[in-house]
Amino acid sequence: MLCRRTLRICVYGIAEENDKHPCMTSDSKEHWRLFQLEPELVFLFHYNSAEFSDVQECLSSTEFMDHIRKVMTVIDAAVVNLDSLSSLDEYLTNLGRKHRAVGVKLESFKTVGESLLFALESGLGDAFTPDARDAWSQLYSSVVRRMSRGWCRDPLEP
User: Fold this and answer.
1) What's 80's DSSP letter?
2) Bridge partners, residue 51, by sequence
3) Which of 54, 89, 98, 157 is the most exposed place for a label (fewest CB within 10 A)?
4) pLDDT per residue as tens digits for the range 48-59
């Protein structure tokens, strides 16, 4: 069962001290294993019509960090709405549809989830307990399940 307290203590307690999300610290780019696990994802990141030629170029861009902030905003919204995740269904389905439209494969969200857990573990150290890992895994799975509806629905459907 998801536990808001575990999720909030795991991230927000530390975030209050540092005033930064653990995944957004200055060295967090090293913790995002996204491109180590699935290097071809770098080619999906297009900002201002510019494509990144390599992983390091993407990781060092302000646009990529803005994208990470957006990802964490979605995750944070899920934490805040933990007791009513269904209130985010339409938003998450549309977000999934947008990701599908730019060529993201549904299977790639497993890689994103693994990267998120790795970043949290690296940033939080011993505070990232097995219970916290399980809670984050469940939350992320719930978000992806809702986003995956964007792959299943016809974009012309009302």
Assistant:
1) H
2) 46
3) 157
4) 656 777 777 777
